[in-house]
């Protein structure tokens, strides 16, 4: 295993310059969770109307994998129909469990996280933001596993 | 890797390392450098052999059968109990209840003592540096009894802040439960003084010995604590070995913990009477082979001498604290090796501990990254997690140096 398989340029870029890392006043959905194993925290804010996800932002603290995954996720899902967002959540999880091998064309920056599959303990870090997004879409503000919104 | 007796201080580390099969393995193409003994220690072949030997030649249930194997198994199991009692300075083997380790021991006290003894408004005094296993059992007991938890706070440099002790430890306090050595900060609290202070207000004192007993000579008779929890797997023994030391009169007075076979004297339709101490706390088939393995671990540590074990730890901790500070790591906890243990929590630049642990793993170096089951400590110092290196009898200065060199690599990856 080589470190550049996990710490790809694009991951480090999203970690150091996170996109959409801000609170969203008036968000229609929010959810907040932490990873009890390590203490990483992510809060996701969603502005959605009907069947469309207009905008997603996040706040959080944690390792490069959890935070870059959150950053990439906000870019990948903002402006998408709800159905597409749900499918992407499903497909992202499938990629992280090694059941799906998407191309860069299909997955954009997110394919960079494929390398994490070789580090099983870190897969949870990559998936955390997606779990929180799903929680938000399910109206799960109260499902926070310990952490509270900032 | 060259290891000389001179460099390693009190122990012949090269010779010790030869006893630990796992230290011969590699991680990728790098030799394993194991710096996570605060989580669990590695096992010498003497311990592995003792457990295997029991299964191969003596396996039977203890305290059950009339035949030769059962007698041997019982004698070996009870010999391990006597060794553990002697190891912590108790003259009476019956003061040792075998358990799976410190977590089970603490829960045993929380169920068999606290739930029976505590009333609404009674107080349990903890410290903010406790492992979750010395917090959560008391939260559960407090919920059931109406007792209140209070906490001794921490100073900025990782010591207990005892300035308000008189307002925290009062006649309402029924139990003081304090770690003997912090697993996250390395701190050695002044347990003898704290036990005395607890007794002065009529409270009992429990010392969490998970990190203390493996690393520092302990004498419960001198310490006079009422309870001491002991983890076998952190002191070269098998997982699920360990025990609870308690003063005999307490054990006599306490309720059983788990009900089942062997812990009874007589069973009727509607009630039972209990076996004598300590058996009334040992329900069902116990971890016989593991406790026998722990006995071998104690033999190993006693042959090294616990004073030497501690001296080696002070030496390597001093070296690590110096080297880590030289490269700008932020240390959480005391900086004087004489007043602390060898578990060192740190941040290197702004590299998140998880990323650091992944990068170090590429160099064959195993450290812990996370909150170390000490979220109160993490919150106190404003970090979500720390990296933690911890040492034991088989670690060398060279391994510490390898850790420090690998940190630079992590800095390179993150451009910091």
Describe this structure in words.
- The complex is a heterodimer of chains A (150) and B (416).
- With 150 residues, chain A is of the alpha+beta class.
- Chain A has one domain (3-138): Sufe protein. Chain: A (Alpha-Beta Complex).
- The longest helix of chain A is centred in the middle third of the chain and has 15 residues, at 82-96.
- Chain A is globular, with a radius of gyration of 14 Å.
- A 4-stranded antiparallel beta sheet of chain A has the order 1-2-3-4.
- Chain A has helices at residues 3-6, 9-16, 64-77, 82-96, 104-107, 123-137, and strands spanning 29-34, 41-49, 52-61, 80-81.
- Residues 141-150 of chain A have low confidence and may be disordered.
- Chain A has 6 helices and 4 strands; from the N terminus they run ααβββαβααα.
- Chain A starts with a helix and ends in a 13-residue tail after the last helix.
- A 7-stranded mixed beta sheet of chain B has the order 4-10-9-8-7-5-6, sandwiched between helices. In chain B, strands 13-14-17-16 form a 4-stranded antiparallel beta sheet, with helices on one face. In chain B, strands 1-2 form a two-stranded antiparallel ribbon.
- The longest helix of chain B is centred in the C-terminal third of the chain and has 21 residues, at 306-326.
- Chain B is built from 16 helices and 17 strands.
- Chain B has 416 residues and is of the alpha/beta class.
- Residues 1-7 of chain B have low confidence and may be disordered.
- In chain B, strand 5 (123-127), helix 6 and strand 6 form a beta-alpha-beta unit.
- In chain B, 51% of the residues are buried.
- Chain B has 2 domains: 5-31 and 306-413, Alpha-Beta Complex (Aspartate Aminotransferase, domain 1); 49-303, Type I PLP-dependent aspartate aminotransferase-like (Major domain) (Aspartate Aminotransferase, domain 2, 3-Layer(aba) Sandwich).
- The radius of gyration of chain B is 22 Å and the shape is globular.
């Amino acid at each position: 295993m080589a470190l550049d398989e996990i710490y790809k340029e694009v991951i480090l870029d999203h970690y150091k310059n996170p996109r959409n890392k801000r609170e969203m006043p008036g968000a229609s959905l929010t959810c907040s969770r932490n990873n009890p194993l390590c203490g990483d925290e992510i809060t996701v804010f969603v502005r959605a109307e009907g069947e469309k996800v207009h905008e997603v932002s996040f706040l959080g603290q944690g390792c490069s994998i959890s935070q870059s995954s959150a950053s990439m996720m906000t870019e990948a899902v903002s402006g998408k129909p709800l159905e597409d967002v749900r499918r992407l959540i499903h497909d992202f999880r499938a990629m992280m469990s090694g059941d799906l091998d998407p191309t860069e064309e299909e997955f954009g920056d997110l394919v960079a996280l494929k390398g994490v599959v070789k580090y099983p303990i870190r897969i949870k870090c990559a998936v955390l933001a997606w779990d929180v997004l799903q929680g938000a879409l399910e109206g799960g503000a109260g499902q926070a596993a310990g952490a509270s919104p900032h | 890797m060259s290891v000389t007796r001179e460099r390693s201080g009190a122990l012949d580390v090269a010779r010790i390392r030869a006893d630990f099969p796992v230290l011969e393995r590699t991680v990728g193409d790098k030799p394993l450098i194991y710096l996570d003994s605060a989580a669990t220690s590695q096992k010498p072949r003497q311990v592995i052999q003792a457990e295997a030997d029991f299964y191969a030649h003596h396996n039977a249930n203890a305290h059950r059968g009339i035949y030769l194997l059962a007698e041997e198994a019982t004698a070996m199991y009870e010999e391990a109990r006597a060794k553990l009692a002697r190891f912590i300075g108790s003259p009476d083997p019956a003061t040792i209840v075998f358990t799976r380790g410190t977590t089970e021991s603490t829960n045993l006290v929380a169920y068999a003592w606290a739930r029976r003894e505590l009333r609404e408004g009674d107080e349990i005094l903890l410290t903010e540096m406790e492992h979750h296993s010395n917090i959560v059992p008391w939260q559960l007991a407090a919920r059931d009894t109406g007792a209140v938890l209070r906490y001794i706070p921490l100073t900025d440099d990782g010591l207990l802040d005892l300035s308000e002790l008189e307002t925290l430890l009062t006649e309402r306090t029924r139990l003081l439960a304090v770690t003997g050595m912090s697993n996250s900060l390395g701190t050695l609290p002044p347990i003898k003084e704290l036990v005395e202070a607890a007794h002065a207000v009529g409270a009992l004192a429990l010392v969490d010995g998970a990190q203390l007993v493996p690393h520092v000579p302990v004498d419960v008779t001198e310490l006079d604590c009422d309870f001491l929890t002991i983890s076998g797997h952190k002191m070269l023994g098998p997982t699920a070995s360990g025990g609870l030391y308690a003063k005999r009169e307490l054990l006599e007075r306490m309720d059983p913990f788990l009900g089942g076979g062997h812990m009874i004297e007589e069973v009727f339709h509607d009630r039972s009477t209990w076996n004598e101490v300590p058996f009334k706390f040992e329900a069902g088939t116990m971890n016989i082979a593991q406790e026998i393995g722990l006995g071998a671990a104690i033999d190993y540590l006693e042959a090294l001498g616990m004073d030497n074990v501690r001296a080696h730890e002070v030496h390597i901790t001093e070296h690590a604290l110096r080297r880590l500070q030289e490269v700008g790591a932020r240390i959480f906890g005391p900086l004087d090796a004489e007043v602390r243990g060898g578990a060192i929590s740190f941040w290197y630049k702004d590299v998140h501990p998880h990323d650091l642990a992944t990068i170090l793993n590429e160099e064959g170096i195993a450290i812990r990254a996370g909150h170390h089951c000490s979220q109160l400590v993490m919150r106190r110092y404003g970090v979500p997690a720390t990296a933690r290196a911890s040492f034991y009898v088989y670690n060398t200065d060279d391994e510490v140096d390898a850790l420090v060199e690998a940190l630079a690599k992590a800095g390179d990856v993150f451009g910091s």
